[in-house]
Design brief:
With 159 residues, the protein is mostly helical. The chain has two domains: 74 residues; 74 residues, no CATH class. Helix content is 71%, strand content 0%. The radius of gyration is 20 Å and the shape is flat.
């Protein structure tokens, strides 16, 4: 067993708990009375249950790291600077920033297809997922397929 991961497990577990509680709160705010369907058929139920499951896993990870021996849970300034200088951290921050912008734009004045298509284009261009024409086709096709399935097959309105 690797005891050097104690600190990482602790903070990752805390982050998972906070994010999952945010997911559950947003799912609770979703409309629950669509077309006369019962509340258990509302669009936020599955996502809310997944959020609760994620919370349980984050809590288990946090508690397990507290009980385990190993590195101290405190973070030093050197640890923070080393983390921020890492290329993976910068990529994660960029992805987080693009996702936050997407979430803030979703459901506002722009239609779903434009917001989601733009998000997919931005992510795939930034992370160089392939040639521009493939990125454009995948973004347009994915956005159209998701919009069609939710609006026509499931009859769930998208923002």
């Amino acid at each position: 067993m690797d005891y050097g991961l104690r600190r990482q497990d602790f903070y990752t577990g805390l982050i998972l708990c906070v994010v999952s509680l945010g997911i559950v709160a947003e799912c609770w705010r979703m409309p629950r009375d669509l077309q006369g369907w019962p509340a258990y058929a509302s669009p936020g139920v599955v996502t809310g249950l997944l959020g609760l499951g994620l919370f349980g896993m984050g809590l288990a990870l946090t508690l397990r790291s507290v009980r385990r021996s190993g590195a101290a849970l405190a973070i030093t300034r050197t640890d923070v600077w080393a983390y921020l200088a890492d290329v993976g951290t910068r990529r994660l921050g960029l992805m987080l920033g693009i996702s936050v912008v997407y979430c803030l734009l979703l459901g506002r004045t722009l239609p779903y297809w434009l917001t989601t298509g733009g998000y997919l284009l931005a992510v795939m261009f930034v992370f160089r997922a392939g040639p521009w024409w493939q990125i454009l086709l995948i973004s347009a096709g994915s956005t159209a397929a998701v919009a069609y399935v939710f609006n026509r097959v499931f009859a769930i309105p998208l923002p």
